[in-house]
Structure formats: structure tokens, C-alpha cells
Amino acid sequence: MEADDGVTLDELKGLLRRLRSKQRLSMTALERRAGLGHTTVSQALNGPSIPSEATVIALGQALRAETGVLLELRERAAPPVYVPARQSSGEDDRFENRYRQYVQQRHGRLSVVGLDLSRPERACWPLDAAYLSLELAVPSANMEAAGGVDPGPDGGSGARVRVERAEQALGGRRRTLVRGLAGSGKTTLLQWLAVGAARRDLTGGMSHLNGCIPFVLPLRSLVRRGELPTPDQYLSAAGCHLHTAQPPGWADDLLDSGRALLLIDGLDEVPQGQRAHTRRWLNELLAAYPRATCLITTRPSAVPEGWLADADFTEASVRPMSSRDVGVFVTRWHTAAAGNVTTAQERDHLSALQEALKDTVRAQRDLAHLATTPLLCALVCALHRDRRGHLPHGRMELYEAALSMLLHRRDTERDIHAPEGLTLTEHHSIQLLQRLAYWLIRNGQTELDHDTARALIADALPSMPHIAEQADADAVLMHLLARSGLIRQPTADTIDFVHRTFQDYLGAKAALESRDIPLLVKNAHDDQWEDVLRMAVAHARPDERARLLCRLISRGDRTPKHRSRLYLLAMACLEHATELDPAVRREVEARTAALLPPRGFDEARELSAVGPVILDLLPGPDGLEDDEAEAVVRTAGLIGGDAALTVAKRFRNSEKDNVAWALQAAWDRFDPHDYASEVLSHVPNLRMLTVSTPEQLAALRTLPSLPGVSFDGPFTHKEMASVIDPGMFQQLMLRDNPVLQQLAFLQPYTALERVSLTGCSNIEDLTDLANSTVKDLQLWTGSSVRLESLKELTGLTFFGIDQELPRCGLETLPVTADLTTLFLGSTTCRSIGTLRGITRWPNLTSLNLCGPVKEISDLKALPHLDLLILQGEAGLSLLEHLTITPQITRLTVTNLQRGDSLALVATALPQLKELNIHCFTGHRSIDLTPLRSMPDLIIRLYGAVEVTGAEHFPANAITRTPRPRN
Description:
By secondary structure, this protein is α/β, with parallel strands linked by helices. Among the domains are: 2-77, Orthogonal Bundle (434 Repressor (Amino-terminal Domain)); 98-319, P-loop containing nucleotide triphosphate hydrolases (Rossmann fold, 3-Layer(aba) Sandwich), CATH 3.40.50.300; 326-389, no CATH class; 687-796, Ribonuclease Inhibitor (Leucine-rich repeat, LRR (right-handed beta-alpha superhelix)); 833-966, Leucine-rich repeat, LRR (right-handed beta-alpha superhelix) (Alpha-Beta Horseshoe). α15 (323-338) packs antiparallel against α16.
């Protein structure tokens, strides 16, 4: 036996060494990745003793190995333990199979206790379809080795934790205490473990539990029996009707052999006076059965940190669901619900509800904040379905339903009575929590210290004699922390609200009860008060509501600095104004008429500065002009985030090019995967995307092939090739890429027409493009291309460059192709000084200048030159050096300066047919009078604030973007 143990230990250590070699990790790198000391790692790989479970888990994770396999080897290497003489019988096996089937049936469904639905059967769903893997925060390995608390860099008790999915976080651990807020999914996690173990289908780090028999022990039921149960009483105590058929000694044998999985739920549901006894029961149980695997759940404040440390329990904390998790939960919940319907019509209806609810949760920020626990997310899903796609009228009723469930119905319907030794009604709990919430809001704080919270409650108790008779302020505060599900204790001395939404809801109610309307209005410009104002309008009586909104717009009238925000906030509040004087409503709507919908980028930028409140007010797409639709998308894009994604999603089917470009430009402000799947994949004329992160690259693989991509950053040619289609790819832009050294990889791309290089410091030779289909080449700042290689690219028709050239400039530029378009950047223009030599390309039809040059008279010698673009430093004044050039019929100017006269245009370009002036930088006042001799001219003005002389032209000759408001 001892020899076998030694062989197994050698196998474990040999496997660890092979894994290290395969990963090519030095000992130092392995120690750093695992968070373990040198001696610990050295002994684990080479020493004579058996490494601890925590060490094996840390090494397994660092080496990307299956921790279950490693722990199984460690278990086999451990010193032999006493094996009971009682042998398993056929009767045991038959009962075990019956019990496994029972566990699967008993715990294979999820339910929401305390949910008020018209059809109660809809509050239950299959576990398989609805379960969402939770994220747990667990101590890093070196913290566990030190006893669970790791000093931070400042020497205090620290916060170094590792966040993992439950399957990874619990993998291989024998004893874990899981802390989580009310409704965070603790009980569901136990159900999932029980069903998985009963089915023997757990995978990865949990696979070692497949041979275990689960016992789900809800402490709230056990403590009512009086004495806590012994192993032979587990089934009867948990209400399992199979207990009478249980073979004698069966549970003892499972625990003793290490095949029992104890899933103990709800330490917080044990009355305070019995928790010490429960702890002794646990310690005695584990002392008697040291090989049993045990997982216990509790709310965070029910027991102190390290409560079970002497029994070698690791503590893990359930994390709130991310926005991605919420989306997955909504999908799985509706999939689970669809399993209970019988008609295709109802399944289609559920699918539509799923998509609608995802958009609603994203769009309504307070709802998104609310739905960060499985319980509340399930509440939202169930009520949304129960009311045929409509949440309770207004969000306020949803909060009321959630508060009722958390503060009263959930404990009552689970038959939990006074676990902290006192009873609070729902009304009393709300009144006390309001005091805490309003103090935080008034003082601009996110948390309050324990003494302040106790004092606020103590001040209230004289007016609540029923509570004062039961307990003092300390006990009441501890009860609210343990049972309300609304406040928590992030540190030993501080208290905060779990959901900011509930804090604002309760604080707004307290503000109105205190008649603090002036205080609300005074702080309305602060985005931290935004939701408080909106909820105050919802809580208010009609006369209070009218007074609050009138004061809000009156303050906006007097305060130019905050005017737009105050007007828009008042408008957003109308959603909650279920009963309001029509005259007040008209006053509010009149103030926002000049702001919504936005027209143009400037207005989009101004509205985005107001903050997310604007998202609730953005209209469309129906009824919007093209410029308004684009501006709405740009506003949402500038704000970004989940709520803005629902706005962008409304425009995803637009066939307008300007809207498509706005949608393309916005995706770096969103989660790449979500935005790609929910917006970009639906855009009918998607042309170009910028990829700057690995996440965007991965998301791009899920989209149909694009004709153009801009890769910003050090992407390899293999990474780029993985997302572009050689047969349809037309445009490649590379920016800040020091990795690429040549462009030979582009030769298979038979549709490629345009290549742009910016900051590609190691690409020197362009001859790889010599026989390609590339017609358009642009070399911008930071490129290191040897210009002599340009002479090989004889098929170019468009050439753009923004690099320094010799003073002789264009005369010696080695571009022998017959160009039709030339783009000269500001650096190039400054370095060459003149346009001498431009006549080398007699077929030029378009010239774009971005910097100051002289001697532009050569342009007259270009017979086909039709379009002249003057950008940046190439202002209108360049036309002073140009003699009459009648062949130019189109002119674009992007930087009009004060003092520039359009008389230069009339003199130099007498045959001009189109004039485009962009005023987004520089001077924004335009006088068109000097052009009155050109009545057939088409004029497009972008960003102009003041326009004079328009009366000299037909009404349809001048287009202004954005369109001026009346």
C-alpha cells in the first residue's frame, strides 16, 4: 500500500513537471503565475511530502491543467484512512440510483419565491435551460496559504482576489463558504451542483464530484426541528420521502468514504441565537467525516469573516451579473419558459418578448442596475411575460414589486420568521432604509459609516414603538443588513446600498416627504441627482409634480450653463408624470423643441455632453430626416454603453449611407461582440470598420466579409487574413503597425483597390503591390516606405502622401503612373513649397491640398482638372495665386478664415458649378454676396452659423447642414 502511495505521489509530481515544461515556464514564472512562494512550488514538484489542496489547485490553474485530475492523484497519494468494514450491497446501489433520480427531479427546477403572477405556474422553470454560471471572487493562492487574508500594499487587510466562473472557482475545493446577497443565486448554485453530481455530468474542475452523492440541507428547515440532524436523519430532515427506504449506515458510509457532497444552504436563515450551535454542529460533523466535501451559503453579514477558517473553509463571494450575463440570463430564462408552452405561436411570442426585454433592460439604466442578480432579473422576466411585454405601469411599480419581494414576501413564503430576533413590517423597513438613502444623497456619499447609520436609525425608533420594544438601533441595523437584501457592509465599518436604483428610489421618496423640492431643483444639474429627480416626479402628488417641474425649467431659464441639461431632464421626467397639468407639460416640451432631434455633429456632441439622460429622449428612426437620423446615431455613439446600444439598434436597418457610416464609426464605444451581432450584422450597406483590439478582431469574424477594414495596431498578416475575404476585399488601411515588414500577403486579394499606410515603421518596399489590382495608394505620417519603389506601381490612379519630400518635390517624385487624383498632406505641402512638376500627370481630375503652397498657376495647364479641395492650412487665400482656371467646376474649402472673401472664387473659377464650404473649424459666418454673379452655382454649407447674401440665389441652390432651426 505504501509503495502504491509513493508511485501515485511520483505520478502527481511528474505530471506537474511535465506541464511546466510544456508551458515553457521557468520556476520563477510559475511561482508568479500561481501566486506561490519558491519553497512551496519546489516542494510540490520535487519534495517528498504531499502538497496541500490549495497548492495543487493554484498550480493546476497556473499550468492550465484539469485540477480535478491533479486532485484525484493527490487524493490517491494521501495517507490511507480508515475504510469501514461495511461493504456496499446491491440494496445500497438500488437505493443510490433511486436517490439520484430523486435529486434530479427535486432540484431540477428553479422558482422565484414571493413573485406575484396571474399564473403562479409560470414562476418555475427547468434548471438545465435557465441556469447561469455565476462569477465568484476567491482569495488568490498565496492568501489561502497565509490563512485567507492577504495584506494589501498598504499593509491593511487586502483585496487581492481572483474572479472566476463558479466551475473554476470551486474546482477541486473540499470546503467552501459562499457569501452572496439576497437573490444572488446561492441556492441555485447548490441546486446545479446537486443535479450535476446526481447525473455524474459535471466537467472540468468539478468532475471529481461525479462520484459523490449530494445532500441538500436547507438550514431554515433543519433548525425548526430542534436538534440539527445526524447523517442518518439528513433525508427526513430535508423532507425527502425516500428516508424510510434508506439502508442502515448508508449516509455514514458515504461521508466516511468521502463520497458525500454536503450542500448546506442559508447560514443567514438560522436565528442569531442558534448560529454558534450550528457552527459547533458543522465542526463536529467535519471532524467525524474529514473526507466529506462541503459547500455552505450565507448572506454576507450573517457571520463574520473567517467564521469557519479553523475548519479549513475557503470563502468565496458571488459577484453581481455583468451586462453580458444579464443578456445571457434573459435568453436562457425565455428558453426555459418556452419548454412549458405547447404552441408555435406562444414560442414565437416568447422569442419576441426576449428581444424586446433585452432592449428595454439596456435602454433603461435604472432597470439594468436593478437586474444584476438572478432573482431580480427573473422577476423582471416573469413580470414582463405575465403582462404580455409590458412591465408594471412605469418603472416605479416594478421597484415596488421588487421591494415587496425582498423585504417581506420572500421570507414569509419560505416560512422564515425573525432569524435576527425581531420582526419588521415592509412599511417599517422602507421608512428606515429611506433615512439611510436620503442621508447618502444629501451628503453626496456612496457609503456611510456604521455609527452614522446606527444614529439615523436610533433617531427614528421613538416614532416606531413597536420596533423599539423589540430591539435597539444596533440590532435593527443588523437585521436590515442581514434580511433586506438592499444594504450591505462592504467593510467592517461602512454600509452602502446594493443597488443605486433602490437608494435613489427610497431617497426620492424621503425628499418629498421632507418637502425638499428646492433642494432637489438646486442639485438637478448634478448627474448623481438625475435619477432622484425622475423618481421624485414619479412619487409626487400632482401638485408637487407640477411645482417641481416648473421650478426645474425656471432654473434652466436663468442658468445658461446648465440650461440644456435641466430642460432635457425635465423632459425625461415626463415619462414618470402619470398625472400632470397640461400647461406644465406644454412648457416643458416647448423648452426642448430647439434641442431635439439633433441635426449635425455639433448638436450631437452637445447632447452627448448632457449624459445618458438624453438616451431616453432620442427619437427615431421613423419620422426623422436623414441628417437627424445620423445625428441621433452619433449622439448615442458618443455616449456609448448598453443603453446607447438600444438606440443604435433601432437604426440598424437604415439604407442611408450617412446612417451606416455613423453606425460604423460608433462601434468602439460598445462591447464589440454585442455591437457586431446586434447592430452591425444587420446594416445593409456596411462598408468599412476600424479594428483596434483583439476583441474587435474576434467580433469581426462573426460578421459577413466587409469590403474595407482599417487595422489600427500591431496585427499580423495572419490575423488580418482571418477576417477578410480575398474575393471581395477592396480597401485596407493600416495604422501604427510595427509588426508588418512587407505586403506580399496581399497578392491573393484580387479585388483590392485601395491601400493606406500610417505609422507602419517597418514597411519599406512596395514592390509587392506592383502587379496587384491596387489603384489607390496613400502614405501618411510615420510611414518608412522607400519612395523609389513607387515607380513599380504603374497601375495607380489615386496617390496620397503626407511625408517630407525634397524641395524639388513633385518634379522628382517617382510616381510614373497616370494619376487622376492627387492628395498632398500638410507635411508634404510645407516641404515642397510649390506645385511645380504637377503637369507630369496631365490627366488629373482631382487635387486635394492640405497645406500652404505657392506657384499654383500650373493648375491652369491641367486640362481635365475638375475638382479642387483646399483643407487645413490650404485656405481660400491660395486662390490669389491662381489665374483664371475655367476647367475647375467643383471647389471644396474646409477651413474658412475670418477675412476670407469668396470674391476670389468668382475671379479665379468663373465656371464653377458646385461649392462646398465646411465651417466646423475656423470662421462660421459666410457672406455669399460676392458670388451673386454666379446664380447657377450649387452651394453646400456645413456648420455655418450665420449666412448672408443667400437672397441672390434660388431657394433650392443652397443647402445647409445642419438645417437651421426656425
